[in-house]
Structures are given as structure tokens and as C-alpha cells.
Amino acid sequence: MRLDEKDFHNDVVRLDLLEESDRARLAASGAVQAMWDWLPVMPTGTNFHAYFDFMLAMKQQGSIIPFSITRQSDGAFAGVIAYLDVSRTHRRVGIGYVWHPPEMRGTVVPVATQMAMIGRAFGARMRRIEFPIAAANERAIRALERLGARNEGVLRRYMRLADGSWADLAVLSLVDAEIRAAIDLLKDRVAEMQMA
């Protein structure tokens, strides 16, 4: 299995490789405002189109694999997510650039999205999955820790954000058997949430 294979879905979400055709859909979403909370400054500019162009360029180079997320039940745009810093040699990958519309947070959509991403990384024989998160995002850090990810520490003043502020970066990870355990836990959560 490859990280960028097509036909990437489960009962809840479908993940499609981010394409130029997604520009308008993403531009019209709340993700544009959220960019200022979590995206770093780039030398090419700090506007939506510069970021979108950057994502497509990095995808072309193979350093990130970005996806748009669609909710299966009604075809609604459900956000974006990406594999980062892919190292097939060392069998490690990051998962980041995650954004879901506010009305989908706390639903089965984010859980099913993580299940899909972690499951595919495991299927692609990754042995380490990293989650780089702004240290101020305590809610996301707690959610990953409940999943079994280990908090490896904080990289201080790691990056300048689009709004000009500096952010510390927390690094969490799942390795080896922790990955399989996280997948099982996510499957259980998805099943419980779908029955509720």
C-alpha cells in the first residue's frame, strides 16, 4: 500500500488527494480564517492562494501528501489533512495540517479521519507516526494522548505563524505496537459514535 493511493475511504469519510479543483471549495470554507491560527509564515506570502500553491508544490515534490475530506453521508466538505515529512527509508511519517469545519468537530468525522490516516500509514509499513501540534492546542494534544500517543516534548519558539506570532511546537508520536492499538481504539470509537 502507498500513502497516496486512490480509493481512500471508510464508512464515514472519503479522502481525496488535494487538487487545483479544491481551491474554490477550501477558499469558501472557514479554513481560511483558521490558517492564521496554525500555519507558519512562508517566504512566498501569507495569503490563502500562496498557501494553496505551496501545498500543491510540496505535493508535487513528494514531501507532503495533502487530502481534502468529504463526509460520505451527504457529500459535505469535511476539511483537510496531510501526511508530512514522509520518510519511506526510515518508515516514518507525520500527520498534520488538520482542519475540520466547526460543526463537524466532536462528531465521528475527525475520529474516522484519524482512523483512515493512521490505518493507511500502518498499511504502508510506517513504524513511527508523528503529530506536530502547536503547544497551545491543548485540546488536540489531550485527544492524541487518549489515543495512546506519547508526548515527546516541546520545541520552543519553533515557528513564526502567519499572524506574526511565535509558536512552540509539541511533538507526539505512535510507534510500533502503539499504532495498531490506536487503530483498534479508533475503530471502537467510530462504531460507538455511529450507534449513538
TrEMBL record:
The cross-references to SUPFAM superfamilies, in alphabetical order and at most eight, read: Acyl-CoA N-acyltransferases (Nat)
Q: Which residues form a coiled coil?
A: none
Molecular function (GO) terms for this protein are: acyltransferase activity, transferring groups other than amino-acyl groups
Specify the superkingdom.
Bacteria
The record's section on Pfam families has: Acetyltransf_3
Q: Which residues form the N-acetyltransferase domain?
A: 14-150
Q: State what protein this is by name.
A: N-acetyltransferase domain-containing protein
- In which organism is this protein found? Hyphomonas chukchiensis
The root-end lineage is: Bacteria, Pseudomonadati, Pseudomonadota, Alphaproteobacteria, Hyphomonadales
